[in-house]
Cysteine desulfurase IscS (Suipraeoptans intestinalis), 396 residues
Amino acid sequence: MNRPIYLDNAATTKTAPEVVEAMLPYFTEQYGNPSSVYSFAAGNKEVIAAQREIIADVLGAKSNEIYFTAGGSEADNWALKATAEAYKSKGNHIITSKIEHHAILHTAEYLEKNGFEVTYLDVDADGKVDLDALRKAIRPTTILISIMYANNEIGTIQPIREIGEIAHEHGILFHTDAVQAFGQIPIQVDACHIDMLSASGHKLNGPKGIGFLYIRTGVRIRSFIHGGGQERKRRAGTENVPGIVGLGAAVKRAAATMEERARHEIELRDELIRQIESEISYVKLNGHRTDRLPNNVNFSFRFIEGESLLILLDMKGICGSSGSACTSGSLDPSHVLLAIGLPHEIAHGSLRLTLSEETTKEEISYVVESLKEIIAQLRKMSPLYEDFIKKHGSEK
Ligand SMILES: *Cc1c(COP(=O)(O)O)cnc(C)c1O
């Protein structure tokens, strides 16, 4: 087995070798500025247009609806801030959920400080938004609904088509943070009435620091970065040509391998879930059991502290995550796990393992063996566990 056993693909993924290869000439040979007139550089304009086309095709969108950004966070910020500004004469109310990525939640909080009102919808125990609650939250002043396609921590996939229909019926814009879903599951913007969609290269075997925002034709959205005329004057700055080429190559690859990759990952995901549930006591699977990203496994282990678990797994060469990488290092339990109703002490003992196409059966067995050993070791040292066993008898 190769080390490390990398099971943190929701945090970031390996850039695929063919993606790197596609990018390289744009650093060393074809380094011209796409805005320059001479033919040496102008070719890069066409290269960028071709990548836009690839991405638009995958989404069922038009290529002039794809705007390159420096990643998912920027796309999320742009979607919220610029629509808020452009539609503030219509209303000041935005609806989102409690389990969004911080790129959405912190942007929403920023907007609240600037005169906007935000409803943060609850989710059920599986992490799904309730459509009736969404309908009830709509006001005459609602200008935007932003609900993530799939959650980065627990993998739950939202009823996006239904949410899009509700937004559409009410004439409200619908944005979705699809950073985890795009490249993993099929997405069609028209069928789901999606007006804006965020995605990021490094979550789909592309490079870091590049992503895009899909903006449907007709959506009034303000420029995010002022300067030159790039990205139809909405996002200035010399294009990240190698990054855009890498993103295009990654999207093409992800679309071509999606079915087979999903089949492989779902098989191993379900095997990992099955083994953990059958071999370790006092565990709880977080997230929806079937409406779930193909590569996501998230468990809470009672009487366990997630950070200790991660450190001991690391010593065995296994990379996992206790919440999202952004919140690790803080002692607050994940806002997502609290939103699905876990008490603090259970949320603290959580582990996310996110698989890739390279994950093997052998690795899964090794991870389960390691987990069994580590959890037994940690529980042996836990006074809470000792009390529990005294009261309830030994393990089932
Ligand atoms: C990773 C992630 C982001 C942020 O994307 P970056 O490209 O890292 O800025 C936003 N939303 C979700 C759901 C993510 O998983």
The chain is about 40% helix and 15% strand.
